[in-house]
Amino acid sequence: MIALGNHRTFAWTALVAATYSLVICGLLIWDAAQRLAKPPLDEPAFVALKQQLTKHPDDAEARQALRELDIQLRGQFFHQQQFTKVGVYLLLGGVAVTLVAARRAAVLHRRIPRPSLPSAAQDPEEPIRRWGVAAVGAIVLGVAATIVLLHVTTPTLLPDDGDLRRPATTTSDAEEN
Amino acid sequence: MNSTLRWATLGVVAAVLTGSAAAELIPTPSFSNHAVPTTRVPVADDVIWPLVDVAILALALGLATYLALVKRSRRGLVALAVASVLWFGFWRQGCVCPIGATQNVALAACDSSYVLPVSVLAFFLLPLVVTLFFGRTFCAAVCPLGAVQELAAVRPLQVPRWLDHALGLIPYLYLGVAVMFAATGTGFIVCRYDPFVAFFRLGGNTPMIVFGGCLLLLGIFVGRPYCRYLCPYGAILRVLAKFSKWRVHITPSECINCRLCEHVCPYGAIEPTTVEQPAAERAQGRRRLQVMLALAPVLILTFGGLGTLLATPLSQWHATVRLAEQVRAEELGVNAPPSDAAEAFRTSGQPASELYQSALGLRDRFFWLGGALGAWTGLVVSAKLIHLSVRRRRAGFQADRAGCVSCGRCYWYCPVEQVRLGWIAQPADAVAAQVNAETPKEMSA
């Protein structure tokens, strides 16, 4: 008998590892979304200090506060990045365990193949040949259509060769004038 | 339970996609007392390291060949696949890469100023030579891209062979485009669009991570989608493997036509026994072949002509043409946001007309290259149609020389192999043994 108990163990292991990986993944997505939604240099306090310093460039106190806040924000950002890095390793471990357990479970639960015997009258390659030619024909049409589509939809602004032979007015020439 | 397991696995692999994309946002230093570090040029690798890489690749190829052809061990191949993913994938970060080396070789062949490192040439040639003699053992367990898909293939299903034939054309087209872009110095698109390298480096651009994740998800149910339907190096290996002298033989002696191997191969790489055809069908087959042979030059010329239409789209992949288009757009005041590249060009003082001339020269070049690419497409399609029209005679089930990746799945199922291993007394006992016996060690791989 195929050991079904073992199959269940591995299936449950895969399930638990998958759940764990999904949780890690969720946390990483949440963390990334937070960071992308709130760039550190768009922090209101930081922006306000920058504006204040622009208005009063000699304000030494504001300058110092801005420097300190800048370092603090950078520290937070790189700390979060480290969090992501650790999370990626944990995720990788979870995925590895899931794959190993799932493969093992699949092996233990493998069904015995029971193919029918080949028919002496029917050529097994005939349908492959017929459908294969049709599918290749479809690919050929697809490629041809793609080429035409690319040709039609790709504009170019470059001047013709003839235009370039005439004295050209280029941006750099114009700037010199 | 199977369904739960399948969906859980799907979810987990999806998780990989998003995780490594998180570390992209790096704030630009603006105002702080942070000391900007001095730029340091990385020290070039010692001479010894490329040699070590070549030696390890050769060793891995030898081991894969031994395990696939001599030892006939699926378990050994899986273990080697894990080692390859760890070494060539995660440790060497996908850089010992014969697939990418194809582009270096193409560039070196067309640009005499480009120096091709000997180690890169070795990466490119070693698997080709091995394939020429022993079949695609490189794909079996050495290539990290193939190995990672092999490990992800938890429940591989069979793709209909007719569809497999049609989709199998894509790698040849991709190879043509990749060689053309590499040879013209446009870019190494195989490396840029490598779907798995971001995983190996634990970070990369988001679209490629998503694409790679989708391929891995697909790979749970469709065996090795990248190897079969995209890999340009695999396309070269397929051709060379057709000439391989020693290759995978499913059964160690006479085939008993049980069809078990055909049933379990997830890559559609088993060619069945053929039956004798009546004379009328043979005549029809001959006529079909004649039509395909006559169609070949028509297809090559037609696609050659069509390919010339690609001059503009293809040339715009080249940095010089892109810059010229940008400068021209800004010059004409067309709706184009100003770019740093165009600004840098203007500051250089070079006349724009020179840039346009060089871009037009490139476009002319791509006119002919597009034609060549089209002709290549026509040639590949013709070869496939002729291949589909030729009828071969086979007395037993055989591994398709081109499509077989030497994964060793079929060995375990072959009753004749089981007799050789001493698990059963005669092939007829195979099914009973599979049902009643404890799972053998080899099966667990």
Task: Explain how this protein is built.
The complex is a heterodimer of chains A (177) and B (445). With 177 residues, chain A is mainly alpha-helical. Chain A has a domain at 4-63 and 85-108. Helices cover 76% and strands 0% of the residues of chain A. Chain A contains 6 helices and no strands. Chain A has helices spanning 4-37, 44-55, 60-108, 125-153, 161-165, 171-176. Residues 168-177 of chain A have low confidence and may be disordered. Chain B is mostly helical and 445 residues long. Among the domains of chain B are: 49-247, no CATH class; 282-376, no CATH class. Chain B is built from 24 helices and 2 strands. In chain B, strands 1-2 form a two-stranded antiparallel ribbon. In chain B, α1 runs antiparallel to α12 (206-221). The chains are: A mainly alpha (177), B mainly alpha (445).
Secondary structure: elements and pairs:
The complex is a heterodimer of chains A (177) and B (445).
Chain A: H1 4-37, H2 44-55, H3 60-108, H4 125-153, H5 161-165, H6 171-176
Chain B: H1 2-19, H2 48-70, H3 74-91, H4 98-110, H5 118-134, H6 137-141, H7 144-152, H8 161-167, H9 170-183, H10 189-192, H11 197-200, H12 206-221, H13 225-229, H14 232-241, H15 260-264, E1 270-271, H16 279-308, H17 311-315, H18 319-332, H19 340-348, H20 352-389, E2 398-399, H21 409-413, H22 415-421, H23 430-436, H24 441-444
Antiparallel strand pairs in B: 1-2
Helix pairs in contact in B: 1-12, 2-3, 2-5, 3-7, 4-5, 4-9, 5-14, 7-12, 9-14, 9-20, 16-20, 18-19, 18-20
Brief account:
By secondary structure, chain A is an all-alpha fold. Helix content of chain A is 76%, strand content 0%. Chain A has six helices and no strands.
